[in-house]
């Protein structure tokens, strides 16, 4: 992995005590550490937006991958729409929402369900797509999604993911714009969930064993 493309999050460098930041009381026992505080996420989102605008080439169809990608998408779009390219032009944006699901508890089921109608896909022909995702873990979701989107002949597809996980389970897929490379632990917060819980937590945290047991699905 190329370290200049993202911030490498290691437990040695990023080791925040839970008492240093506000954690909602309903999750106090359910996270074991804060990996990336909300303020750091927002600063990194500003930089990613800058990189995306600098390399943009006309209007973008920004595709939010639901549900986990929604917070990064909202914050990223908010910055992009206020920026201009080096030649002083703002970037026209249209927004699309794609539902993709493959996780049960903290495991990929291997079966990636993509909710997109034929009519929605046909709209992609000849457009520049920017896919906005929260995390690349095994990479299975993104590889499957890209396979589907390419069939509809967009002019270009770029992918940004706030997080990429350093894991042996990776299929090797690396997005164009990455925020942070994180250790191989199950993370929650900033819209990343465990069985739909923790999306209402601002910081990106490592889930605790207590949290996994409390919110486990059979
Ligand atoms: O690289 P992978 O191993 O495929 O994992 C990444 C995917 O897993 C999560 O989605 P999930 O299926 O949990 O749905 P969600 O976005 O609704 O939480 C996440 O939002 C990514 O889409
Ligand atoms: O670590 C994770 N956290 C939340 N959702 C995920 N989907 C894949 N990996 C993760």
From TrEMBL:
This is Hypoxanthine phosphoribosyltransferase. It comes from Umbelopsis vinacea. Pathway: Purine metabolism; IMP biosynthesis via salvage pathway; IMP from hypoxanthine: step 1/1. GO terms for cellular component: cytosol. Belongs to the purine/pyrimidine phosphoribosyltransferase family. Its EC number is 2.4.2.8. It is found in: Cytoplasm. GO terms for molecular function: hypoxanthine phosphoribosyltransferase activity; magnesium ion binding; nucleotide binding. Keywords: Cytoplasm, Glycosyltransferase, Magnesium, Metal-binding, Nucleotide-binding, Purine salvage, Transferase. One of its GO terms (biological process) is guanine salvage. PANTHER family: HYPOXANTHINE PHOSPHORIBOSYLTRANSFERASE, HYPOXANTHINE-GUANINE PHOSPHORIBOSYLTRANSFERASE. It catalyses: IMP + diphosphate = hypoxanthine + 5-phospho-alpha-D-ribose 1-diphosphate. Residues 41-194 form the Phosphoribosyltransferase domain.
